[in-house]
Write a structure and sequence with these properties.
Elements lengths: L16 H8 L8 H11 L12 H7 L4 H15 L3 H25 L2 H7 L4 E6 L2 E6 L8 E5 L7 E13 L1 H4 L5 E2 L18 E2 L4 E13 L5 H11 L6 H30 L4 H15 L4 H18 L2 E3 L3 H7 L3 E4 L1 H5 L5 E7 L2 E5 L10 E3 L2 E3 L3 H12 L4 E5 L4 E5 L2 H11 L5 H7 L2 E5 L7 E8 L2 E8 L1 H6 L1 E6 L2 E4 L2 H16 L3 E8 L11 E10 L4 H12 L3 E5 L4 H11 L7 E3 H6 L2 H7 L5 E3 L3 H13 L4 E5 L5 H6 L2 E5 L5 H6 L2 E3 L4 H41 L8 H11 L1 H7 L23 H27 L4 H22 L15 H19 L1 H7 L6 H12 L1 H14 L1
Parallel strand pairs: 9-23, 9-26, 19-22, 23-25, 24-25, 26-27, 27-28
Antiparallel strand pairs: 1-2, 1-3, 3-7, 4-5, 4-6, 4-7, 8-28, 10-11, 10-22, 11-12, 12-13, 14-15, 16-17, 17-18, 18-21, 19-20, 21-22
Length: 891
């Protein structure tokens, strides 16, 4: 046998069927068993191939490359060396928790391809040597002839050679919101989008209606489905802004810690103090410079955020995603089911020369009928139209009590008709019992209509629905408010113009007619026209408010859909997304060079008829522009872009397992509005992490400057190693944890997204950290010097400095609840901070006044006057920081 060419390189949709058979060296009877076995050796099995999985041990080891983790491990060892077993165990637990969380989220990300594999068809019905055979789908090869029936999952990419009323649900692959009618004729366009290849059936999609057969042209990783799998394997997942910021913090603190140890040890030895004593003290101060509780505080903040988001229908699988969403500057949203309900809805009805608007959305049978804005009662003509429409339909409407939602069984278009009829009180099961169906002329892609014949009191009546041009061509009369009137060519053209106007509004238009005294042979001739119904998958009402909120928050919303450009444009206009007025199709995007697209990407609001590669290209281009890009989606076609984006958001109801595994967040209600709540939660969490870092780093800087200042001034060290560790591990801990659950600032969602390049340490944050740290050092060094000059013993001076340092940090905890607003804004609104400060005051009092603890911490009791002096001196940090904030607001 001659070796076949690479079948994936062919444009099969553009070839006549006989040429397809010729190139694949096959025939309508299918391949022989011997030939198929030979081709399996050439092409390999028809299955998705996973790349070599990363060992769990490799993933686990990679977690310890983080600088902060390394510092914490060093702190664990140093604490154990100093004899502080409790502190060593505490840090070790924090390190273990942080590394395990990172390991689990990375390990789970590897499962995306497994979910994709589960969507492949397990078996296929094929022709082998002219006989039908049911075989494992993995045994299919190019040249096999596959038979398709309603309900089948398509096992490979097929060029259709027969299509009898064949419709396929391709939403998972293309994003198309309604089943696609298939046909067999070649398509002249050399490179149409996947959704426009109507003579092809693609692996992983489903047959929803009709039957057909096709010849396998590509299998496995060469299918459109396989291309998605390949992209999933090659897409690199970037680090989150939070991870990048914490890495920078870790590196900076590592350098500070090393410098502190060196300076303290050298100065102490130079002044004649014992080397070992100074080394131990320097190590204690170095450990104090590292915020050991940072991973714990971050983890707690994110975990609480996850709980809050779950209550708002957003389920997060990876904790850092919470913070990432808070920094999002662009949301690339799928249309169907996210911005829209994913449920076809009749919006307009034209009957008896009246255009009627219908309210309500989705499959819930509630709504009203309007003419020129005024509510009307359904006329007899309107009821006759809807009755005819549902009698000529097979869909069923039902209420799922367990989920509390209405749903349809069958074709979404027919479901919309049944729902509209229910709004006027027509019950389909009751009508079918009253007027039983006797005959049916099924829908076909050639004649584009469906007709049913029913027994009625006045005899057999035919009801027909379909494309307006087909139905009108079969009609000779029209039902009007005054009765049945003739329908001439001029009137037909006027009705077709009305249908086109409805179509221009992105409505899918269906015409309905009937014929009394009908027989099967002439049921679709000389009919009576009843009217037109225009339907669309409507935008969610709450999505419009959510888009507006995003706009106020400085977040741009971009629609990316596989649907028709006209439909996408109508929904985008309704929601307020289409700012530029520009809709770009996948074909137009493919024609753009990379440089041209990079230049235009920020000016395009809507992308329609796009492929998975297009979605990935859009996300990548936005990231190159410095945006933090979120991507929503439900289908397999969305998975690569979800994984590439900074925050991939999968749909919980309509989403496939693939998208849920590829994304880091799932919307339980498939609602775009839920994203806004998640954004707010993410912003709040980042703000709280920023508050914690401001508080802790300012405190640590104050400690370091205090010790360094005393050393340079030739004074005794103002704190013992144990006192430093006490402040670091105990006093800093609870207030920091309280700040991690601080209530959000009132104007949180009116602020623009932060620049990811600046991260946590913006100019105001750095200034406040330095001002707070410097003033703390000045006050504490001043108290220590004053106490010594006043003749107090060293132990008393150290105790006063110790208490002063703690009190200043308490005042700073309230000040650092915002880097912009005054401390008086909601001063005591954080109950956890209030309780933590109160408990810490009791703890520090115990250290100062309980004899046993005095001995442990080398402390002296303070007199009321000394306590008052310390309190007043510590309070001075409040006006100093308030002045700094006021000056920053003035800039």
């Amino acid at each position: 046998m001659k070796t076949l060419k690479d079948t994936s390189a062919q444009q099969w949709h553009a070839l006549p069927i006989k040429n397809v058979f010729s190139r694949l060296k096959s025939n309508p009877r299918g391949l022989s068993y011997a030939e198929s076995a030979s081709r399996v050796g050439q092409y390999g099995p028809n299955e998705l191939q996973a790349s070599e999985p990363t060992s769990p041990w490799v993933i686990l080891a990679a977690q310890f490359k983080n600088v902060l983790i390394i510092i914490l491990l060093a702190g664990t060892a140093l604490s154990a060396f100093l004899g502080h077993t409790t502190e060593a165990v505490a840090i070790g637990v924090i390190v273990l928790l942080a590394t395990l969380l990172s390991f689990l989220q990375e390990y789970r990300a590897e499962r995306a391809l497994e979910a994709l594999s589960r969507m492949a068809a397990p078996t296929a019905t094929v022709l082998r040597e002219g006989r039908e055979a049911v075989l494992p789908a993995r045994e299919l090869v190019p040249g096999d002839v596959v038979l398709l029936h309603t309900g089948d999952r398509i096992p490979a990419d097929l060029r259709l050679i027969e299509a009898v009323n064949l419709q396929c649900d391709e939403a998972a692959l293309t994003g198309e919101s309604i089943p696609v009618e298939k046909q067999t004729a070649l398509i002249d366009d050399f490179n149409p989008s996947v959704g426009d290849r109507t003579n092809m059936a693609h692996a992983g999609t489903n047959v929803t209606y009709g039957r057909g057969r096709g010849i396998v042209v590509v299998t496995g990783m060469k299918t459109e489905f396989g291309k998605v799998a390949a992209m999933l394997q090659t897409v690199e997942v970037g680090r989150t802004p939070l991870q990048k910021n914490l890495d920078k913090v870790g590196k900076a603190l590592a350098m500070v810690a090393v410098a502190v140890v060196a300076v303290i040890v050298v100065l102490g030895v130079f002044r004649g103090q014992p080397f070992l004593e100074m080394l131990i003290f320097g190590i204690a101060l170095a450990v104090a410079a590292v915020p050991e509780a940072l991973p714990a505080v971050v983890t707690i903040s994110l975990a609480i955020g996850v709980q809050h988001m779950a209550k708002r229908n957003a389920l997060v699988r990876r904790l850092p995603a919470v913070e990432t969403l808070g920094s999002t500057s662009v949301i690339c949203s799928d249309k169907t089911g996210t911005l829209t309900k994913g449920e076809m809805t009749v919006r307009k009805i034209f009957t008896e020369s009246q255009m009627i608007t219908v309210s309500g959305s989705g499959y819930e049978p509630t709504g009203q009928f309007y003419v020129e804005g005024a509510v009307i009662d359904p006329s007899a003509g309107l009821q006759n139209l809807l009755q005819a429409a549902i009698l000529a339909s097979d869909a069923k409407l039902s209420h799922d009590a367990s989920e509390g939602r209405w749903q349809i069984t069958g074709d979404p278009t027919e479901g919309a008709l049944v729902t509209a009829a229910s709004k006027v009180g027509l019950d389909k099961p009751a009508l079918e019992t009253l007027y039983p169906r006797r005959h049916e002329i099924p829908f076909s892609s050639e004649k584009k209509c469906m007709t049913t014949l029913h027994s009625m009191p006045k005899g057999m009546v035919a009801f027909s629905k379909g494309a307006p041009e087909v139905i009108l061509d079969a009609c000779t009369q029209e039902s009007s408010a005054s009765g049945i009137i003739p329908l001439d060519r001029i009137r037909q053209d006027a009705l077709l113009e009305t249908a086109q106007q409805m179509a221009d509004e992105a409505l899918r238009v269906i015409a309905v007619a009937y014929k009394p005294d009908a027989v099967r042979d002439d049921a679709e001739q000389r009919m009576i026209f009843l009217g037109l119904l225009g339907m669309i998958d409507p935008s969610r009402s709450e999505a419009k408010d959510a888009v507006r909120t995003c706009e106020q928050a400085g977040i741009r919303v971009v629609m990316i859909t596989g649907d028709h450009p006209l439909t996408a444009q109508a929904i985008a206009c309704d929601l307020g997304i289409l700012k530029s007025g520009r809709v770009v199709t996948g074909a137009e995007l493919s024609a753009m060079s990379t440089s041209d697209f990079d230049h235009e990407v920020e000016n395009i609001d809507v992308y329609a008829r796009v492929s998975p590669e297009d979605k990935l290209r859009v996300v990548t281009a936005l990231q190159k522009k410095g945006h933090i890009a979120a991507m929503t989606g439900d289908g397999v076609n969305d998975a690569p872009a979800l994984r590439k984006s900074d925050i991939g958001i999968a749909m919980g109801i309509t989403g496939t397992d693939v998208t849920k595994e590829a994304g880091v967040m799932t919307l339980l209600d498939d609602n775009f509005a839920s994203i806004v709540g998640a954004v707010e939660e993410g912003r709040k969490i980042f703000g709280n992490i920023k508050k914690y870092l401001m508080f802790l780093l300012s405190s640590n800087i104050g400690e370091i400057l205090l010790m360094a200042g005393a050393s340079f001034a030739g004074l005794p060290l103002p704190l013992t190693a144990l006192q430093i560790l006490f402040v670091n591990f105990v006093t800093d801990g609870l207030p920091a944890l309280a700040l991690s659950v601080d209530p959000p600032e009132e104007d949180l969602m009116r602020q623009p997204p932060r620049d990811p390049k600046t991260g946590i340490f913006t100019r105001p944050v750095v200034i406040l950290i330095l001002v707070g740290g410097l003033w703390s050092a000045i006050v504490n060094l001043g108290i220590f010097t004053w106490a010594l000059n006043s003749g107090l013993v060293l132990k008393k001076a150290m105790s006063m400095t110790f208490v002063s340092l703690v009190l200043i940090q308490f005042f700073k905890a309230y000040n650092f609840r915002s880097d912009r607003h005054s401390v008086m804004n909601g001063l005591f609104s954080n109950k956890w901070l209030n309780w933590s400060i109160f408990s810490e005051i009791l703890l520090i009092a115990a250290v100062i006044y309980i004899p046993f603890l005095q001995n442990v911490f080398d402390a002296e009791p303070l007199s009321p006057i000394e306590s008052l002096i310390i309190l007043c001196a510590a309070f001075t940090v409040v006006p100093i920081l308030e002045i700094a904030k006021w000056m920053l607001r003035k800039e």
